[in-house]
Protein 1
Amino acid sequence: MIRFEEVQMKIAEAAKNHLEIINMQVFMEQFTLDRESRFSLTLPHMEPPYPLSATISFIYDAFQTGITLYEDESEEAALDIDTSLELDFIIKLPHMERHPALEELLEEIEEEFPDTQPMLLTREVFPSDGPSKEYEISYSYTISAEDVEEGDLFSEIFEELKGILELVDERTKDYIDHSWYRSEE
């Protein structure tokens, strides 16, 4: 099984070929030693504050972390171990004045990128000036340990993510609430 840090670097290299990495974080759970890596990405032409962004994360649990340190050559031991990698994607949609037909956007993404099986998530926010909603699109991939070592797979995944972000940008750019982003500066 490939080490956590190697997966992290493969993802970073593939991501920077298609998108701009705006943040990279690593979290380690103190007691279980589970590790999580999170990348925040956006389209290369966007400037802060980023109205459209994506977060990619993956977790190595303590067992996966431990197995990368101790390689057992026994095939029997390898058969009982789940060494797959779960890549979770969350695309944070911009704050919008009027809402485009988000269901139609989701259907278009599903049609253009059928492997993603996206879900629309809605979060209601209650600030002092009145309630509003934030929208995210979520999908994930489960990748086998053998495929993790293949470099082209990550490139294809991030090329697909770039395509989704460009589609979302195109469909939502007329609805973006620019006053919200100016207030953040």
Protein 2
Amino acid sequence: ALAAFMYPHTITSVLSSSSGRVIKRNAVLLPAYTFLLGLIALLGYMAITAGVKPPTPNSTVPGLFQAIFPPWFSGFSFAAIAIAALVPAAIMSIAAANIYTRNIYREYLNPQATPLQEANTAKLASLIVKFGALAFVLFFPLKYAINLQLLGGIWILQTFPSLVFGLWKRRFHHGALLLGWAGGMSLGTWMAVDLKLKSTVFPVTIAGTTYPVFAGLWALLLNLVLAQVFTVIFDAIGMARGSDQTQANDYEEAEA
């Protein structure tokens, strides 16, 4: 749940929302969406009961549809699966294109870019991302995609302190937040690799008791500790903090 709103494609929708009320409503409904994902997982047990023996885990649900539905409805279901995959892929590619256009192209390559140039660049970048993702699926082993998915949950969680605490409060020094992120990324990645990327639940023994916890949370704990410790150190040595670029009118809608 902490990581869900940190993904770039989610941040894009958050920043383009019509009001804070919309964001709050979606956040309240998020657990219901997660519950539905659990119901989808039950299809795996249904496949076992139906005697389906798929060659790969990804073939479980299609194999179940073929086993219990007539051919015409199986085809309809396969089309639904394809569409369900394309929708989030489209959103993610658009988010990636926007990030590239605003933070790399306009910032470093063409600072004087017109809105039309930005739009065309974003469209081209989105298309490249789509074809890149397709090439990854077709030409790389499936295990790479699974490994990146496992690591993605750990990695994206480490942006939480910088994005949330860095924007909401000025308690933490910006340099300390960066060091905390680096520490969390390093620990989380090491834990996942130590588990041979077969799981993200890392057992840690404390005072004779073993606690199996999501590696991303162990990494987040280190992230926050480093951010707090280095904030104290940097403030003590007088290291300057970054200037706040926001103005009062940036919050008028939120205040209303």
